[in-house]
Structure formats: structure tokens, C-alpha cells
Specification:
It is a single chain. This protein has 463 residues and is mostly helical. The chain has two domains: 213 residues, no CATH class; 202 residues, no CATH class. Helices cover 80% and strands 0% of the residues. The chain is globular, with a radius of gyration of 22 Å.
Amino acid sequence: MDEINQPLASARQSLVSRTLGEWRTLAILGGPILVAQVAQMANGVIDTVMAGHASAEDLAGVGIGNSLWMPLFLFFMGTLGAQQPIISGYNGARSFEKMIPTVWQGIYLAGIGALIMILLLTNVHPVLALLNLESNTARISQGYLDAFAWGVPAMLLIAALRGLTDGMGHTRVIMAFSLLATLINLPLNYIFIFGKFGVPAIGGIGCGWATALSNSIAAIALLVYLNRSQLFKQMHLLQGWVKPEAEKLRYILKVGLPIGFTIFVEVSLFSVVALFLASLGPVVVAGHQIALNVVSLMFMLPLSIGMALTLRVSFLMGAEAPDTARLIARSSLIFAVALSLIYATLLLVFSAEVAALYTNEIDVRAVATQLLGVAAFFQVADVIQVTCISALRGYKDTRIPMFLVLFSFWGVGLTSGYMLTFTDWLLPAMGAKGFWIGLTAGLTSASILLILRLFLFQPRQEL
């Protein structure tokens, strides 16, 4: 069914030809994933820009709301992300009959995750009180989250169904529906925030309703597509309904919970760093946010390639081609190093120009330029570690990498970053630059440990 999207190399091909062929397959799989990631990021940018045009309080309220729902969503999305390598493995083994039952278990987990998220997001009053927010900002944050919560089931349903579409190698499907959600979100934001076509203006709270509606429409459209498209209707998604099965649920959670926790650890680390840096003043915080935004944008490409690598490795293991899986898993490091060196060069050479794109304030630009210089080395380690952990996820090896990341990020990165920023224990206190050096050290530790894990790990053949 996926001979075009997921071809198998001939044993008669040379090593170079096989490697280039595998890289070509990664590009075919990863290109649409990149577009989908950018589209999803664009939603946040659209919300921020449009809320900012309403008022500073609306911008702050939406920003705080985003910071509260995003880590929760990424945790559940990562957990559901176990379906991609599981179903891709079934695809490689041509065990199509196992796919839909697995998708249904993912849908049940998505339902549980949605219930948890809704309960938490609609009851964040204690958290908002701890932040000592101005009353109107707190009202906007809670109103935004109350509205946003209506779309949580749709978001997690899309994440569950993505296991089927991506797992079968058709990554363009989620790309298309991510773009659809973004295109719908833009006019809905305009209508709800500013009050158009007879709808009352509700400011930043309108971002929550726009996001909820756009994701709900995209989820319904995706379900219709899966049941009517020539390719997917033969899978009989709705007709293939199965009850919750404890063994299958445990398997998804065994693979997925470490992925979700790993993502949560990384996201929460940057949140904690931002909180620590707040004591250094608004200029430092602004410079830090610029540097963080730049590396986040640059990270989209290696992340997308990593997600494609997970799909490819799991497919090849299911297809009983472990040697080819090992080839693409290890040769991808060559590509990762080359990409990271390009990134590092660009940041070292053009850090001042990049900072100038974000702000005209000299002090903020100086801080951002300094941090982007450190971010050049940060990028090298980050690209390598995401490549390694993505390959390991293709082997469904997620538990040990989770502990390696936890040790590296929080043990090495946060600890050394705090000492370099605020103390003279290692070197004279460096301010924000110290945290970025610490984060780079943490990522370097993760990349080394994950490389060792990748080369020493002995994957078991798919059953």
C-alpha cells in the first residue's frame, strides 16, 4: 500500500545508493511534516499578533493561557505519538488488520487525555492567583482557557488519527488539515476578537473560541476524509470499531508515556529558565525570548526529519529489514551534523542581523546577539540529540532515552546553567549567557549519551 512513500531498497544497490535513497525517502516523509509543524506554530503567532492589536492585557492573557495549555497538550500528544512507530511497524510487516484496533485504543486514550486537560484548564484559578496577575488579565486568561477547552477533544482526536495517516506513510494528510485549521483560525480570530458580522468583540478570549472551532472543524473534516478517500476508506475506521483492550492500551502507554514525559521535561525546562531569568529584568527576558524564538524556528526542520526518521526506522523493522533500519538510523547523523554546522555558521555570522529583525532597542538587541552566539553551539547539540532520540523511537526504545534526557537537561543543563548565571562557583556570574551555556552543556550530554545508546542498542525484530 505504501510502495511509493516507503520503498524498500534492493540488496544489490551500493551502500551509497541505498543511503541516498533512504535520505530521499526521509525528505518525502519529512517535507509535509515540516509544513504541518509550521502551520501549527503559525496558529500561536496569529493568536499573539491579533491579541496584541486588541490590547496589552489581551496579549498577556492569551500568552499566559498558552503557557498553561501547551505543556499539557505536548505531553498527551507525545504519548499518543507512540501510535506512529507502532502502526508504521505494522505497515512494514503488512499487518494491516492490526492498524484500526490500535487507532481505536489511541482514540480512547485521547478521550481520557481530553477529560484531564479540560478539568485542569477550566480550574486554573489557583495558578493564576499565585501569579499575582492584574484582575483583568487573569479574567482574560481564564476566559481564553475556558473557550479553548471546548476544542481539546478535537486536538487530541487529530493526534490519535495521525497515528494512522503518518504510520501508513501519508504525512501529507495531516499537513493538509493543519493548514486548513490555520486558514480557518485567522478569520475566526478577527471575528471574535474585534466583533464582526454581529458577533460581540471579546478580545483575547476570542482566540480561545477561534482555536476551538478551527480544530473542531479540521477534526470533523479529517474523519470525513478518512471514511471517503480512496486510500483510507478500505481501512474501515468507523466500521472497525473495537472495545478498549488492556494489552494494547498498555503497549501504547509503554512506548508513549516516556515520549510524552520527555517532551514535557524539555518544555518545562525552558519555562523554568524563563522564570529564573525574570529576576534579571525585562531587557534580559526580551533578549532571551528572541534567541529562544529563533532556535525554535530553526528546530522545525531537524524535528520534522526526526519524526520522519521514526516512521522510517519502525517501517523497516516491521518489514524485516533491520540492516537498512540501522543504515538510515546511523547515516542520518551525517546529515544532522551537516545541518547543524550550517545552522551554527549562520547564527555566528548573522546573529546581530537576526536580532535586529526582532527589535530596535539597542540593549535588547545586544543581549539577543550575545545569546544567539551561544545558540550556534546549542544548535549543533540539539540537532544531533533529536536525530538520535527519533531513531530510537523508531525502534520503540523510549524508556532509557527518557532517563538520559532527564539527567542531561535537568541534571547537567539546569544545574550548570543556574551556577553560571547566578553564582561564582565555576566562573564569575555571567547572567543570561550562563543559562544558555548550561543548556548547551545539557544538550551536549544528551547527544553523547543518545549516540552511545543508538550504537549499542540491540533492537528486537518486529513480531
